[in-house]
Design brief:
Length: about 280
């Protein structure tokens, strides 16, 4: 039996926006329009945010990798207004060309949710010669089952925009047309500690409340791990960020993951001591 459409839509909205904009020292932040840059001596680390939120909601990840010595570039793009091709051609592609100008530095990527699928398309046609490693947090690489359920609901389409309709799970959907990954790619998926009564009836197997673990898989990926955490909370979880940093540094996740502590919306988790690059 299908869940009530209105109730499930409200749940999706709530989970999507429960994404705390955590960040500490803002003094070193350079704002270039909606984009955020934290200069550093190390390699470039480009952050691509997810569906309906903005780069400010990736504040914890931004600060985490800045402290690790990366030159951090957080890109913003209007996911509710533009189609995938427009997001890439009008925002992501020109911004990377503008900010990543040193060919001696590797360009690494950290993405959340929709940002991972956007990056896959970008790398198909515009892969930089100095591409480094990629970590995706909760990417819907095979689409989102909830979109299948609601793509015909006018309110859903109006709120989430045209890109949302591209995230279906059928074989002709946008994510499934992108092909395999042929670059170092680590994927971190989330799983909820307790089932959400509405979404658990729609999402197969383990899931983070929005994206199933199976949907994160893509041919050619280097490694996939699952941590306990909701979809929108993964970017502020110390365990997820530490694992992401380890993969970017070494090409693999840690054999013994750090203790997981899902932060509250008002209090960031304790940071790990990071090695300067």
């Amino acid at each position: 039996m299908k869940a009530p459409l209105f109730t499930l839509t409200l749940l999706i909205v709530a989970l999507t926006f429960v994404s705390p904009a955590i960040g500490r020292d803002r003094s070193a932040v350079i704002k270039d329009g909606p984009n955020v840059i934290l200069p550093g001596e190390g390699d470039y680390l480009v952050i691509l945010h997810g569906w309906t939120i903005g780069i400010d909601n990736m504040g914890e990840a931004r600060d985490f990798f800045s402290e690790a010595g990366f030159h951090v570039i957080g890109l913003h793009y209007p996911t509710r207004k533009e189609r995938p091709d427009e997001l890439i051609d009008d925002y992501i592609k020109p911004s990377i060309a503008k900010y990543c100008t040193d060919p001696e530095k590797k360009i690494h990527f950290l993405t959340h949710s929709l940002g991972g699928v956007l990056l896959r398309q970008y790398l198909q046609t515009d892969r930089p010669d100095n591409l480094g490693r990629v970590v995706m947090l909760a990417p819907p690489n095979n689409g989102i089952e909830l979109v299948d359920q609601f793509s015909d609901v006018r309110a859903f389409v109006r709120f989430f925009g045209p890109t949302a309709l591209q995230l279906r799970t059928d074989e002709s959907s946008w994510p499934k047309r992108l092909g395999k990954a042929d670059y170092p790619l680590g994927i971190i998926m989330g799983t909820t500690r307790h089932e959400i009564p509405i979404t658990s009836k729609i999402l197969p197997g383990g899931d983070d409340g929005i994206v199933s673990v199976d949907s994160g898989k893509v041919e050619g990926m280097s490694q996939l791990i699952a941590l306990t955490g909701f979809h929108t909370v993964l970017p502020v979880m110390d365990s997820a960020l530490e694992q992401a940093n380890h993969f970017i540094e070494s090409g693999k996740f840690t054999d013994e993951p750090p203790a997981q502590k899902t932060p509250t919306l008002s209090t960031p988790g304790k940071r790990f001591a990071l090695r300067k690059r």
